[in-house]
């Protein structure tokens, strides 16, 4: 196996992915970490630890602005996320270390990358992408932000900022426009 070290990244034959940026292929190393996320060894959780479309909608209706929200839920149910396990995974994940590139690798791209990496470990987990209007329309300038979202074991929805690895409750003042699980 060939291994090349470039700064914080290690490129191996098995871990190479290609991300397109500025019309040229940029090879980013995704290290095959020896750190295995804790949920890999957890047995399948019970149905009590699962969440479906109506559950997500009910959680979001809790004092949030969702009048224009579009919710896409691709499976019949997902497994709720243990936040301690997610924090442990985020310590090992390197998504937050990727450089920010306006338009080419911005907030929506970071959400896709983190969701893909988490789903690689456990595709049953209730992790999705959310798009929210973070500031009102002022003179035609609407501020949107994309971020990951998870449903915790406590039946609350949490924002996961893939650019910083922060996990926090959803800001209630933001208008949620799109949610995809």
Please give the number of β-strands. Answer: 12
The H/E string reads EEEEEHEEHHEEEEE
| Main beta sheet strand tally, sense and closure | 6 strands, mixed
Q: Give start-end ranges of low-pLDDT stretches.
A: 1-34
Distance between the termini: 36 Å
CATH class of the largest domain: Alpha Beta
Highlighted features:
2 domains; alpha+beta
Description:
- About 20% of the residues lie in helices and about 35% in strands.
- By secondary structure, the chain is an alpha+beta fold.
- The chain folds into two domains: about 1-30, no CATH class; about 40-180, Beta Polymerase, domain 2 (2-Layer Sandwich), CATH 3.30.460.
- The strands form four sheets. Strands 6-12-8-9-10-11 form a six-stranded mixed sheet, with helices on both faces. It has a two-stranded antiparallel ribbon with strand order 1-2.
- β3 and β4 (about 25-30) form a beta hairpin.
- The model is unreliable at about 1-35 (pLDDT under 50).
Q: How would you summarize this macromolecular structure in one to three sentences?
A:
The protein has helices spanning 53-60, 83-92, 107-121; strands at residues 3-6, 9-12, 16-21, 24-29, 50-51, 70-72, 78-79, 127-138, 141-151, 157-161, 166-169, 175-180. By secondary structure, the protein is of the alpha+beta class.
